[in-house]
Amino acid sequence: MIAILEQKSLAKGIGMKKVLILLFLFIFTYANLSDLQKAAKAGNKEALIKLGFMYENGQGGVEKDLDMAKKYYSQAAELGSEDAQIALSLLQLNSHIDKKSVSLSNSVDIEGESQIDMKLSVDDLKETLIKAKKLDKDALYTLAVIYDNGFGDIKPDKQRAIALYKKAAKMGSKKALKVLELKKYNVK
Questions:
Q1: How confident is the model at residue 23 (pLDDT cuts 50, 70, 90)?
Q2: Which residues form the domain of 111?
Q3: Are 182 and 108 in contact (CB under 8 A)?
């Protein structure tokens, strides 16, 4: 096989070293994917999240498939992974943004504070999602508020809201910590 690759690579002007590197990466990627799939079948939360991420982004030798990403994230969330709950939340919001079905404004009520009017354009929400994927505390807090109260056609989801508040608090958001304390959510 290497001899055939060498002949083809020389004919195309590609060095043999590059061909071997590409072959190694191909084998490593699929061995890694196979290992992840085995670990996921065994109920490994981290493997389920990694597979969800790979399918969400079309990386690691798999085609982009949001249904598969949702499947893997859901399995990890059922096993108690807050990171998977957050990934599901972001995936759901992404689909709402793609459909452009999110309302541009909404009033939200935070216990202990007066009502707040939230106004987000679709572009603002896209930017918030990008920041949340990078674990920006303010973006995570904003998404937590959206899930806590509902926003546009996004229904309230307390479980996702709590996971997002906790992640935002872990990243240093004092507002998220305050909401967790006010609503008497278990802060871990």
A1: very low
A2: 82-188
A3: no
- 173 with 138: CB under 8 angstroms? yes
* Dist. CA 160–CA 146, nearest whole Å: 10
What DSSP letter does each residue of 81-150 carry, written as one string? Answer: -HHHHHHHHHHHHHHHHHHT-S-SEEEE--TTS--EEEE--HHHHHHHHHHHHTT-HHHHHHHHHHHHH-
pLDDT over 90, % of the chain: 16
- Phi/psi of residue 187, nearest 5 degrees: -100, 115
Statement: residue 16 has pLDDT above 90: no
CATH code of 160's domain? 1.25.40
At a CB cut-off of 8 Å and minimum separation 6, what does 84 contact? 45, 48, 49, 52, 73, 74, 75, 76, 77
Q: What angle do CA 163, 45, 144 make, to 5 degrees?
A: 15
- Euclidean distance between CA atoms 12 and 132, whole angstroms: 43
pTM of the model: 0.58
Q: How far apart are CA 93 and CA 95, in angstroms?
A: 5
How would you classify residue 184: left for phi > 0, otherwise alpha for psi between -120 and 50, otherwise beta? left
At which of 80, 108, 129 does a domain end? 80
Distances (CA, A) of 54 to 24, 37, 141: 19, 12, 25
Instruction: Give the Å distances, CA to CA, from 181 to 103, 158, 169.
Output: 29, 15, 11
